Amino acid sequence: MLTVLSVLWLIPLFYLLVQSFRGEPGAWSPTFFPRTWTLDNYRRLFTETDFPRWYGNTLLIAVVSCAITTLFVLAVSYAFSRIRFPARKPLMNVMLILGMFPGFMSMSAVYFLLKILLPNNYQSHVSLIIVYSAGAALSYYIAKGFFDTVPKSLDEAARMDGASRALVFRRIILPLSKPIIIYTVLINFIAPWCDYIFVSYILSGVPDTGMYTVSLGMFRWLEREMVQQYFTTFCAAAVVVAVPITLLFMWLQKYYVQGVTGGAVKG
Amino acid sequence: MNNPTNQNFPYVPQSPLVRLGRSFIATLKAAPQKAASRATGVFHSAAAKVRGFFKSFADGDAATKASYLIMGLGHLRRGQIARGVIYLLLQVLFILYMVTFGGRFLGMFFENFFTGGNVGRVETHISGEWDPELGEYVKIAGDNSFHIVLYGILTVFVVLFFVLTYLRSVRESYALEQAAIIGRRPDGIRKDIALLSDSKFHVTLLSLPMVGLFFFTIIPLATMILIAFTSYDANHEVPEHLFQWVGFQNFGDMLSGGSSLGATFRRVLIWTLTWAFFSTFTNYFIGMLLALLINKKGIRLKKLYRTLFVATIAVPQFVSLLILSKMLDTGGGTLGSGGGIITQLIENVFGYHLQFGLDILTTRICIILVNLWIGVPYSMLLCSGILMNIPEDLYESARIDRTGPVRRFLKITLPYMLFVTGPYLITQFIGNLNNFNVIFLLSGGGPGDLSLYTNGAKGTDLLITWLYKLSLGADRNYKLASVIGILVFLISAILSLVVYNRSSAVKGEEHFQ
Fold this sequence. Notes:
Helix content of chain B: 55-70%
Order of helices and strands of chain A: HHHHHHHHHHHHHH
Structural class of chain B: mainly alpha
Strand content of chain B: under 5%
CATH class of chain A: Mainly Alpha
Strand order of the largest sheet of chain B: 1-4
Shape of chain B: globular
Helix content of chain A: over 70%
Number of helices of chain B: 20
CATH superfamily of chain A: MetI-like
Number of domains of chain A: 1
CATH class of the largest domain in chain B: Mainly Alpha
Number of strands of chain A: 0
Radius of gyration of chain A: 22 Å
CATH architecture of the largest domain in chain B: Orthogonal Bundle
Mean pLDDT of chain B: 85
Structural class of chain A: mainly alpha
CATH topology of chain A: MetI-like fold
Radius of gyration of chain B: 31 Å
CATH superfamily of the largest domain in chain B: MetI-like
Number of domains of chain B: 2
Oligomer: heterodimer
Low-confidence stretches of chain A: none
Largest interface: A-B, 91 and 103 residues
CATH architecture of chain A: Orthogonal Bundle
Distance between the termini of chain A: 33 Å
Low-confidence stretches of chain B: 1-7, 504-508
C-alpha cells in the first residue's frame, strides 16, 4: 500500500526528470519515456538561453533577502518573547491584523513607492529584495514560539551576573536557537525560488529578459507561444533548480518538521 | 507540547466544532462589554494625560514653558544637550516637511474626503498653445490622485508621530525640571546609548524591522485600503486623469444583489470557500491516514517513506505545479487530440477526454486532487509528530476492551488530533483562501466563463487570483482589487478570532517560561 502510494507520489517528478532527456521536440509526447535520449536540452539550457543569468539573479536575491529576513525575524521575535515594554501588546496586535490582509493587496502602492525611491531602476533586484525582506517582521510568530520555550531562568542568571540584554541575546540565546535559525534561513532562502506573484509584478515589464528570476523566466517558457519549443528545456531547467533545493530541504528536514509542528500546535 | 488534559477545560462531551462555535459566540457576546471597558480605560488614561499636559505647563518654569513652543529648549537648559538638539532638529525638519511638501498633499487629501469628489484639483489638460516640434497641443500635467492619497496618508502618519514626539519632549522636559529641583544631574547621551544594548535593547532590535514594516507594509496597505473608497480604475488612470472619493459605493456594487459584479463576486466567493473547505479537510484527513500508515508498528523504512513523500514539499511549487498542469493539458480539447500524458492515459484507458481547463467542474476537481499531491505530505509531517504523543495507555486499554482499529481511530485518535490541531486547521483554511500558487500555476484561473468574463474573473479564480488579475493587465481595476482585499481580510479576521480564542498559546503565554 505504502509502496504504491509513494510510487504514485513520485511519478510526476520522475516524469519531469525523464522528459528533460527527451530528444524529440514539442510539448507533448505520447509516451511516458522518451524514444530518444539526449543531453541536448541541458546543453541548450546553459548555452543558448538566459537561464544561467536567471539562476545567478535568483541565488543573489535569495541570499541577500534571506540574510536580512532572518536577522529581522530573530530580532523581532526575541524582543516580543523576552522584553516587556509598553508598546509590546499593541505592536503584536497591529502585526497580527496586518498579517491578515492578503500580502499582494498592497503591491500597487509598493510599486509606486519603489518608483519614487529608485526612480531609475525600480524594476530591479533591489526592489525584489526590499519587497521580500521589508515585511519580514510579520512572520515572527514561529520563532517567538521557540524563544518562549527557552527557559527564562537562563537569561535571569546571566543578567544577575551583570550581562546586558544584548550580551544575553548574542551569547546565550542565539547559540541555543540553532533549530529555529536553520528553519528561518531555510524557509526564507527557498521563498524567492518559489515566488511568482511578486516577481511577475515587479519584473514583468523589464525589457531585458536576462533580469528575470528562474520562476518568472520558466513560467514564460510554458506560455502557449513558447511551450512547443521550450517544454523539454523547461524540464531540464526544472531539474537544475529543483535538485539543489530538494537536497537542501532533505538535509535540513528535521528542522523544518520541528518548525512546522511547533508553530502549528500553538496555533 | 501541551498536554490538553492538563488544562482547565472541564470535560463536556461536545464535538470540537460545536465547542469552536460556542466559544466564538461567547466572544461575540462578550465583545461589546470588553470594548466598552477598554474604551473607558483608554479615555481615563487619555484624560489624565491631557490634565498632566496642562498642569506641567502651569507648574513649569520658563524653560519648561518655552519647550512647549520650541521642542528641546528644556533639555538644553538642563544640560541634556544631545537630546535637546535632536528634538530641536526634529521640529525644524517637521516644519520644513509640512511647508514644502506635506501640507500641500494633506490639504488636497482632505479637501473632498468627507464630501466625495475629485482627489486633487487640476486634471492633466491641453493648453491652447501649439507645440510645432511634437505636432500637438502642449499638455499641462495636473495633480496625481494616487500620489495625493499616498503622500496624504504618509503625512497623516508623520503628523501623528510628531505629536507623540512633542508630547514626549514636553513630558521629559518637565521631569528634568523636577529632577533639577532635587539636585539630580540628568543622564547624558552616552548613558542613553549604553541603555540601547540593555534595558532599551528592544528599541535596537525593533527599529529597523519596524521602519521596513512602516514603509513597505503599513503605508502601502493604508493607501490601498483608501483606494477601495475611490474610483481608481483603467478609466481613471493616473497621471492623465483624476479619480474621485466615492465613499462606500464600491462595496455597495460588489455586494449588491442585482448587478453582474455582485453575481461574479458571489460565484468567486462561493468557490473560494468551497475550495478552502475541501482542500483543507481532504489534505488533513488523508495526511493523517498516511501518517497512521507510516507510523504503524512493523512498518520498516519509516524514514525512507517519509522522505519520499516530503519530496513534493521540497520541489519548488512553480516547478511541480507547472509540470502537472502540462501533464493534464488537453491539447485541443477533443478525443484524439493528444495533450498531456495524464490526459492521454485516461483517453487510452477509458476513452474519455479530460476537459481540464475547458470545463469548470472538471478543472475544479482536478485542482483539488492535485492539491492533495502537494498538501498531503505537509499534513502527514504535522500529524506524525502529534500522533506519537498520544498516550499509549489509551490504546492499550482500548485493546484490552477488544476495540477494533476503526473504533480506536474514531474514538481516540481523531478526537485527540482535532483537539490539538483545531487552531492549525483554521490557519490552514485561511491559508487556502489565499492559495494563489495552486490555482494560478495549475489553471491560471481558467476556464473562462462568459458571465464572469466582463468582470475579469474566470471559472476557477479565487478571490486572491481575481485580485491579482484586477491589479495588473489591460483592464486594471484597483478599486475593486482593494475591495476584494478588504473583504478577504474580514473573512480571515473573523476566522482568526476563533483561533485566537481557542489558542492556549495566547492565554498561557506567561506560563510557558
